[in-house]
Amino acid sequence: MSDHKKVVLSGMQPTGMLHLGNYEGALKNWVNLQNSGKYEMYFCIVDWHALTTAYKDPSDLVERIYQIAADYLAAGLDPEKVTIFVQSDVKQHAELHLLLSMITPIPWLERVPSYKEKVEALGLDSYGFLGYPLLQTADIIIYRAEGVPVGKDQLPHLELAREIVRRFNFLYGEVFPEPQAILSDAPYIPGTDRRKMSKSYDNHICMGDPPDVIRKRVMSYYTDETKIYRGDPGHPDRCPVFALLKIYAPDQTEKIKADCESGNPDWGCVKCKKLLAERLIETFKPFREKREQLLSDREQIKKILAEGAERARARAEETMRLVRKAMKMWDAQ
Ligand code: TYM
Questions:
Q1: Number of separate domains in the chain
Q2: Are 36 and 145 part of one and the same domain?
Q3: What is the CATH number of the domain that holds 220?
């Protein structure tokens, strides 16, 4: 990996199997960026972040890490070209998080939009949960990353990361570049209830789901709420199923749009859903097979993650030396 390449980092929480939102908003773009050959790339599985919410029973965290690693690899990330690793294998993230916590005003963290929402919805109020976006900032800037390929929901976190970088650089001298988001073509994927697709809303479809689960979930989609009967004219641009058909059945969308808008009684929401389900099953068939095969050899996954951690640690430690020196710390002597 050469020095002149722009550094890119991204990460995901190990929530088990990944869903279409994770894939379309981030993972597919990661693979495209990898294949462009233009970047030095780091992809993290953020197990410490998972503990900010699921701290009561971490007993299946290890299994969830294997699951997400299999998703990364089945989607086409190539450990020969990019660095794939687990956050807790690179302790330097925790050191940087701690140092950044000294310079971060609490109101900056309290005003992150997802914070108040989740505190109320999930009854969370831990110190770690408040610091969630700060740990994310450490994940990114410890690689001195300039690009962060994520979905739209992560933009406020990146805004905060830039503010923290500016503050650090102002106080101690220029160490970090300001990281910018890299959005995919589909940075917001709606779930079956029309809200953002998310496991916490239980409105998701996983690429690794068996065909009957995919069919059931797709059939439960809320469509255009103003189209009540089959002959009613609809508004495809307000319909989450249509949003997905644009990705998975682009050859059909022109005709579907015309039929939906004119209220053609021969083409209703059920037909759209059936088409979408079959396209998803077909599109992700090779993905499902690959992930099964990968999960049958966990030693291999473990080896890939261990090698990734070693490469990540080298870059992270290099940055920490710059940080300790800039801050004139005892351990920089
Ligand atoms: P997480 O694990 O919730 O999501 C992982 C990635 O999937 C994207 N995503 C979506 N994109 C479009 N539509 C959706 N419905 C959808 N749902 C999820 C997210 O935008 C994200 O890119 N805070 C991060 C994890 C993290 C991180 C980092 C990310 C920790 N450290 C450093 C980047 C860099 C999160 O919870 O993502």
A1: 2
A2: yes
A3: 1.10.240.10
Tens-digit pLDDT profile for residues 270-314: 999 999 999 999 999 999 999 999 999 999 999 999 999 999 999
| 116, 152, 199, 271: the active-site residue | 199
Question: What pTM did the predictor assign?
Answer: 0.95
Atom of ligand 1 nearest to the CA of 187: 12
Task: Tell me: do 213 and 271 sit in the same domain.
Answer: yes
Q: What is the average pLDDT score of the chain?
A: 95
| Pocket test residue of 136, 154, 196 for ligand 1, highest count of atoms within 8 A of CB | 154
Same domain, 80 and 148: yes
- Expressed as residue numbers, the domain containing 146 is 6-189+298-326
48 and 184 belong to one structural domain: yes
Decide if 285 is catalytic: no
Q: Report pLDDT digits (tens) over 81-131.
A: 999 999 999 999 999 999 999 999 999 999 998 888 888 777 777 899 999
Q: Examine residue 204 and state whether it is found in any structural domain, yes or no.
A: no
Distance CA 322, CA 315 (A): 11
Has residue 177 got a pLDDT over 70?
yes
Q: Which atom of ligand 1 is nearest to the CA of 191?
A: 15
- Cβ of 13 below 6 Å from ligand 1: yes
Assess whether 179 and 219 both reside in one domain: no
Q: Is the CB of 193 under 6 A from ligand 1?
A: no
Residue 125 confidence (pLDDT)? 78
Catalytic residue among 28, 196, 227, 257: 196
Check if 145 has its Cβ closer than 6 Å to any atom of ligand 1.
no
46 lines ligand 1 (CB under 6 A): yes
Range with the poorest average pLDDT among 111-115, 163-167, 175-179, 253-257: 111-115
Residue 125 and residue 35 in one domain? yes
Protein residue with its CA nearest to atom 5 in ligand 1: 12
Q: Are residues 184 and 233 in the same domain?
A: no
Q: Is 196 a catalytic residue?
A: yes
Q: What is the mean pLDDT of residues 226-233?
A: 84
For 115, the token pair is: 């914070």
